[in-house]
Amino acid sequence: MATVKRDERLTASQGFLCVAFAGIFSKTATSPLEVVKILTQVGTFHSKKGFLSSFVLVQRSEGARAFWKGNMVSCARLFPYSAVHVATYKKIVHLHMDELGHITQWRAIAAGGLAGIIAAFVSYPLEVAETRLVAQNVQEPTYKGAAHVLASVYRNEGLRALYRGFSLTVVGAVPFSLGCYAVYVNLDRLWQEPSFRFTPLQNFINGCLAAGIAQTLSFPFETVKRKMQAQSTKLPHCGGVDVHFSGVLDCFRQVIKTNGFLSLWNGLTANTAKIVPYFGLLFACFETCKQVCLYHNGYIVSPLSYQLAPGVDQSLRPYELQEVKRYLRNRNFSSQQSDMDNRW
Q: What residue spans do the Solcar repeats cover (predicted)?
């Protein structure tokens, strides 16, 4: 059984701010690995000589700033994706909770997968824009930014082009969810102790392990999806895609026929190398932002540690704690006024 919890000591806006800050920072810091991964999945010339050579080729042909191609739109995509994902996930989970507020691991993972699909649909055009910006050469750009990508694709290729490959997001959610489930149902055996005793380090390892296995299982679907997002007869070299195809199934056939079955996992090295630093930075930034907010709300004595403020009821929500503090201030002021009146 897994319990769905959130820190009630943060306001809704503070919780969203922490998630956004952590996501933007971790995405920006690991952007070079993401760029190399997408270029390898699309099949541009940068990726022909392997993982490490890709970095050298990108640096030589486009310069250092090319490692942050598409990062701005990737970060901007976090806001609609996160908002829709969290709202949908909480709604689905609450429908399947028992009277004690618990939900099974399988239902929680399935709820996460369904919420992810809905959130991906809302933000999918931004993902298409990210792929197009990464695939283009920054020295000879076709697009000037995310807004230009969306307008150009809609005008020249139609609305359907902004959702090209979305079906693979839906199909890929199945192996992804199965991978997460396979990890989480075996964690007790892995650590030889119940899940409620896991330390923050163990939870971090669990998250990285689940992400690594789940993404490996669903990676072929993402590879084909990236190729479909990038391909366009309106772009030079058809967007840089290494194969030409007419649809989803034909893309799978052409990739396997041209490059072999294992080429569906091209870019997995960069993706795997990204997992630990990405989740590490995500966790560290979130906790740092959370500490600042908890200090601001009055629950801890310093933004540098989780030492609880003495005499503060940690079960109170932020607005309740502020009401208590306001009441105590007013009571102390009234007491002081009474003492002054008696002396007079």
A: 10-95, 103-190, 198-292
Q: Output the six-digit token pair for 56.
A: 């050298």
**pLDDT tens-digit series, residues 101-137:** 777 777 887 888 888 899 999 999 999 999 999 999 9
Q: Token digits for 74?
A: 């990737």
Q: What is the pTM of this model?
A: 0.86
Is 300 within 8 Å of 224 (Cβ atoms)? Answer: no
- Answer whether 132's CB lies under 8 Å from 153's CB: yes
- For the chain, which residues make up each domain, given as ranges? 2-297, 313-344
Q: What are 178-189's pLDDT values in tens digits?
A: 888 888 878 877
Residue 308: strand pairing partners: 300
Cβ neighbours of 118 (radius 10 Å): 15
Nearest to 114 by CA among 89, 77, 82, 78: 89
259 burial (CB, 10 Å; 0-12 / 13-18 / 19+) is middle
- List 102's β-bridge partners, or say none: 3
What integer best gives the mean pLDDT of the chain?
88
Q: How many CA atoms lie within 13 A of 316 on its CB side?
A: 16
Beta strand 102-103 pairing with 2-3? antiparallel
Q: Which residue has the tokens 């005499």?
A: 311
> Closest Cα partner for 33 from 67, 69, 71?
67
Predicted confidence (pLDDT) per residue in 44-102, tens digit:
988 888 899 999 999 999 999 999 999 999 999 999 998 898 889 888 888 877 767 77
In the chain, the amino acid numbered 295 is Y
Beta bridge partners of 2: 103
Residues pairing with 103 in the sheet = 2
Q: Other CB atoms closer than 10 Å to residue 122's CB: what's the count?
A: 15
Other CB atoms within 10 A of residue 268 CB:
21
Q: Tokens 């500490």 appear where?
A: 291
